[in-house]
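[job 4471] stage=fold_predict status=RUNNING
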Amino acid sequence: MVDMDQIAMSTGFDKALGEQMMKINSEIGAHLKQAQEKIRTDLETRQQAMGENPTDKQKSDFEQYSYELDQQYRQEINKAQQASNQAHTSMIGQFRQQITPIAQDVARAQGFDIVMTRTDAMLLVSPAADITQDVLAMFKQSGLGSMPIQPRGMLNSQSAPAAPAVTPTMPTPAPTQEPASATEDQAQEPSVIPPTNQLPVQ
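[job 4471] inference complete, writing structure tokens
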């Protein structure tokens, strides 16, 4: 058995992951806020152009336009949520890829045929079957633990979400500090949530 959470905390991976996710979600929040201001100005200009006594047709067109921007904005929030989750999953995947071959070597050396990551479902594990400390020691010796983690191909200047639209009456969605799993139900009200305290095996 290998306790991945313990290795993550002992190597500082959990802190590095949290810092990276805070940075990523801060960039997402800033991008969405900038897009809000742009579209709000656009709608205000369009509304002013109708004059003080707009026709029913102009009112209907404006309402339709506002609705379309609302839908576009919500789609962009969903894209931002997906980008955040993908970055989180990518970095955890890199960490697990670093640990896996080391865990395999340690397990073979000690005569184990199966290695499992510790979960809450495990009520009791024999100390003789716990190879976490051996894996941690070899991982630190390898130098892999000092490598900076970066999401693969996520949220750079070319791949950041495109500028979304928003109606003047919509609230400003900003990244929160609540943890969230990369597999959390996407059917909930869309928001950008930095999963800063989720460890690799959860």
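[job 4471] summary: Residues 95 and 200 are 8 Å apart (CA to CA).
[job 4471] exit 0
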